[in-house]
Write a structure and sequence with these properties.
Layout: E1 5-9, E2 31-35, E3 57-62, E4 68-74, E5 81-86, H1 94-105, E6 109-113, H2 124-132, H3 136-152, E7 157-162, H4 165-170
């Protein structure tokens, strides 16, 4: 049907291919990645790459406790499903916004809650500091739940996916 398919893949340090390539794998070492097939895009979209990029926007949504969380929302015309994308330990950066944009190009609404409240980094030590200061229970129960409820309000089924640190919060 042209929608992204989730498939298990794993990166191995003994990978004989060029850096960054992935080998198919199963079992506990598997990570999940999105595969967007060919040029099939959501109705009303054109182009099959980020050259015709969907530009999302920063929005604020309610948390179940009455607070708010900001995040990046990329929408697709006629979307019947949505995805909450949870950031890596670097924060809500251009790469994670790009994931949301690619999901929108494929026909899904995508929302990335900003768990670090506007902070992001390129430095591993600072990323570790930011992640260490994150209240995981609050992030899951309030920020991620608020994101799910916001997307459900758009009338769509909602999935949650995460990368690196975000993967831990999807469970």
């Amino acid at each position: 049907d042209g929608r992204p398919r989730l498939r298990a893949r794993a990166e191995h340090s003994t990978n004989p291919g060029p850096p960054g390539t992935r080998l198919d794998a199963t079992g506990p070492a598997a990570v999940y990645s999105w595969s967007v097939p060919g040029p099939r895009l959501a109705p009303g979209m054109s182009g099959n790459n980020l050259g015709n990029r969907i530009m999302g926007s920063t929005i604020t949504c309610a948390r179940p406790d009455g607070g708010t969380v900001q995040g990046y929302l990329a929408t697709a015309p006629g979307a019947t499903a949505s995805v909450v994308v949870i950031q890596e330990w670097w924060g809500l950066n251009a790469q994670i916004r790009g994931v949301a944009d690619r999901l929108a190009l494929a026909g899904y609404n995508a929302f990335v809650p900003d768990l670090y409240r506007g902070r992001s980094t390129l430095e591993a030590e600072e990323a570790h500091h930011l992640m260490s200061g994150l209240d995981f229970a609050d992030a899951a129960a309030q920020d991620v739940r608020g994101a799910v409820l916001y997307l459900k309000g758009l009338g769509a089924k909602v999935a949650v996916t995460g990368f690196c640190m975000g993967g831990a919060l999807t469970v």
